[in-house]
User: Fold this.
Amino acid sequence: MSPGRAFQDNSHLLVKDRLAEVLRKEMVAGRSVPGKSIVEGQWAAKLGVAQASVREALNILTNKGFVEKGSGRSARVIKLSRDEVRQLFEMRSVLEGVAARYVAENQPDLRDVDQALADMIAAAETRNLTAYYERDLEFHLLIAQKTGNRFLMQQLRWLLSPLFAFFIMNLQIEKDNPAFWKGSIEEHREIIAILRKGDPIAAEKHMIEAIQGFFAQTRQYSPLADQRRTSSEVA
Assistant:
């Protein structure tokens, strides 16, 4: 489907949201590759919209981690190097470990986290990788939210948004691999179970080990491995 047709098919959304969805699909499909410059004027002309609307769409995608803006406010499709992914996972394991400790200690209501997992399972059943990772991101941010620490929440949103956008853009090749879905879902079930046991130290340890395990699996795929390989699972 052409970008113009996709734009028309999303007519029920606001212009900026429709544009953001069209641009995101271009990235997920690999037509806008990581690191590629996004020229507002070119997309405005292609889709027949105001350049300001394209700019608003890019702001949405920046907040979701798909786009990064550099000097001069130029926009590019997010591109993460090996070291950057490693650094994000290092920080993620520490912060999510702290979040798990707080949640296990305070025992907040986790029904919305259960629902996020149920939504992940539904997405897995239809092999919808984009929906899966959007709900996966929600799963982890909900746990952070349960801590009541807004600074922790802000930092994790900043860390996880580009990381999960990276997953969505780079792991489409895995969507027909049953092991990919099974391993990830089972690990998220275990995270919920350990949080409900009420042991803060065990919960923190488990979360850190889970995140480290996700990173070990992530290193297998493009662009981190310099070629596409089949992986078994990811967070």
Summary: The beta strands are 37-38, 67-69, 75-77. The domain at 3-77 is CATH 1.10.10.10 (Arc Repressor Mutant, subunit A). The two ends are 30 Å apart (CA to CA).
